[in-house]
Amino acid sequence: MATAGEKDPGALLTIGELSLELGVAQHILRYWETRFPQLRPMQRAGNRRYYRPADVALARKINRLLNQEGYTVRGVQKLLRDRSAEAAQPSPDAGQSPAAIAAPVAAETSDHGGTIDVFRLIALRDRLLGALEP
Predict the structure, then answer these.
(1) 72: how many CB neighbours lie within 10 A of its CB?
(2) Which tens digits make up the pLDDT trace of 66-89?
């Protein structure tokens, strides 16, 4: 539950509220809308913008990539485009339980006297992460 002066986490934010939260000017948020097609807030009468929770999360990500991690606008565009293409493709492990994914690796460890290649562990970790992502 939100306290006095705060909105509920799922509430829509105005451009002014999001601007204050991110510490960027409102015209920067409008500029991002022209450069990142994924960022599309609802617009009501008088072109008043309302950012949904997904829009807020995306704006936070764009802000972090641009202003903290040093990406260029073009770099963030490519990163978002690549990630959305990855998300559109189903993972080969989607729908499998983590135990089913890990079972072949567990069998390999018992065959090799308890030792396992670090690269296989890294590959297993990546497969598990892929299976757990929505």
Answers:
(1) 10
(2) 999 999 999 999 998 888 776 666
